[in-house]
Amino acid sequence: MIPPRRDILVDGRPGDVLPADDRGLLYGDGVFRTLRVDAGQPRWWDDQLAKLSRDCASLGLIAPQPVVWRADLRQLAPPPADGILKLLVTRGSGARGYQPPDPAHTRRLMVFEALEFSPNPPAGLRLRICALRLGWQPRLAGVKHLNRLENVLARAEWDTPEIDEGLLLDQAGNVISGVMSNLFIWRGNRLLTPRLDRCGVAGVARARLMQRARDAGIEVQETELDLPAVYEADEVMLTNSVRGLRRVARLEAKHWPNSTISRQLTEYLDA
Amino acid sequence: MIPPRRDILVDGRPGDVLPADDRGLLYGDGVFRTLRVDAGQPRWWDDQLAKLSRDCASLGLIAPQPVVWRADLRQLAPPPADGILKLLVTRGSGARGYQPPDPAHTRRLMVFEALEFSPNPPAGLRLRICALRLGWQPRLAGVKHLNRLENVLARAEWDTPEIDEGLLLDQAGNVISGVMSNLFIWRGNRLLTPRLDRCGVAGVARARLMQRARDAGIEVQETELDLPAVYEADEVMLTNSVRGLRRVARLEAKHWPNSTISRQLTEYLDA
């Protein structure tokens, strides 16, 4: 089996290494995005760059300009490339210890992995509930930063192919998200998704679906959701920037055999 | 000004770069230690390696053997080197996404920075209270892992040389530690230090001081401490593996002009 093609730009130059004193390595001092490229077109590109900029700002990082990312993209994944693109920004090197250097010279990475996407299978996802409970850190909530040990430990809880994704709760028992996706439930003709002001990552697909559903006249709420609320949902769905929206077929012993709104919402999201 | 000499070994080989797909960078998926070397002798070396092993185990990482670290040390900081040594272990490269590769090939870094240490000045440290509040994550509490954004954001709160260290509280208002040190208070002939079962890093100097103080017949307690308890302390002290024990002279507007027990405890710790 041939390993997938991988290409990396570090500050716009081909290379597959990073200085060992990069603060992204030493402290997780940075942010990232993972998204899908179809025929050289990154999915929801403007939204992705805007979110990356906001996440940079939340750490006091100066985000690379969109024009810079666009040049990287032309170099790394020109049309008709299909695959997964990762953008990563760190606070670069410098200053011994936690104190950020001033000025900081941010470092950017773009990683492209060529991949042929098959359509999402019609069968829904099979979920388990993770034992790991997310901690609360309002200062970092919503941000896709490089401190992702909670996700790593949660994802390490299973390695059976029968499980597609894990459901993450916080320490108060609120349902927050999947390990690598955001959560929506459909109940009584309303679209509900967990509040992410204490933990979790507020993904681009999530924001986009909320907006598109509202535009279509659907009532959308960010709210606290507990496990019973999820079990009693008419339909449960997960979103991310690579696979878009997918319905959940099973959570532990609970089954949802039929789709209600997910096909409609997929159309809104992908429009 | 000549920058300090820096030397780096990556898996035992001289080099100053790391693969861009290292999980330490991508997710903070690793652990580290920072300690002091005097004339080629790492301070509290066995304790440091034991703690690094325990921290590796808490993430499911296989720690490099002590013999391997010793060989790195002979290469990087042979006697009579003085300086600061950093040991870092990551889950290496491999597996796209959060799921740890199985088996994982851990990667180790040793970084040495030559430095002449001046004795700790007799004047105590000047502290501020950080606005950032530590989140609770019992699964990672005590471990010196690479997810250190909380410390970075807390350390970024001040850049005046008049402040030596920041005091970190958790979200319930408990005092936990300094940004780069552990906290002890002396009160009514007892030595108290915060419990670290929900957040914070349980440092080697802290463990060692607790043990030595107990050996000397002092009552030592790990407990919940709030700010009033710190303000009312007879003496406040911070520990870490580079500077050992130092007394606190000031916390915001509160002054502790005189030492009570800190000189004695320094002797126990350094013995």
Please provide a brief summary of the model:
The structure is a homodimer of 271-residue chains. Chain A has seven helices and 16 strands. The first copy, chain A, has 271 residues and is α+β, with helices and mostly antiparallel strands.
Q: Keywords, please?
A:
homodimer, 271 residues, alpha+beta, D-amino Acid Aminotransferase, Chain A, domain 1, D-amino Acid Aminotransferase, Chain A, domain 2, 2 domains, nine-stranded mixed beta sheet, six-stranded antiparallel beta sheet, 7 helices, 16 strands, 23% helix, 33% strand, globular
Question: What is the topology?
Answer:
The structure is a homodimer of 271-residue chains.
Chain A: E1 6-10, E2 13-14, E3 17-19, H1 23-27, E4 30-38, E5 41-42, H2 45-58, H3 66-76, E6 83-90, E7 107-114, E8 125-134, H4 149-155, E9 165-170, E10 175-178, E11 182-187, E12 190-194, H5 204-215, E13 219-223, H6 227-231, E14 235-240, E15 244-251, E16 254-255, H7 262-270
Notes on the protein architecture:
- The structure is a homodimer of 271-residue chains.
- Chain A has 271 residues and is of the alpha+beta class.
- Chain A has two domains: 6-114, Aminotransferase class 4, branched-chain amino acid transferase, N-terminal domain (D-amino Acid Aminotransferase, Chain A, domain 1); 125-270, D-amino Acid Aminotransferase, Chain A, domain 2 (Alpha-Beta Barrel).
- Chain A has helices at 23-27, 45-58, 66-76, 149-155, 204-215, 227-231, 262-270; strands at 6-10, 13-14, 17-19, 30-38, 41-42, 83-90, 107-114, 125-134, 165-170, 175-178, 182-187, 190-194, 219-223, 235-240, 244-251, 254-255.
- In chain A, strands 8, 9, 10, 11, 12, 13, 14, 15 and 16 form a nine-stranded mixed β-sheet that branches. Chain A has a six-stranded antiparallel β-sheet with strand order 2-1-7-6-4-5.
- In chain A, strand 4 and strand 5 form a beta hairpin.
- In chain A, helix 5 packs across helix 7 (262-270).
- Strand 3 (17-19) of chain A pairs antiparallel with strand 3 (17-19) of chain B.
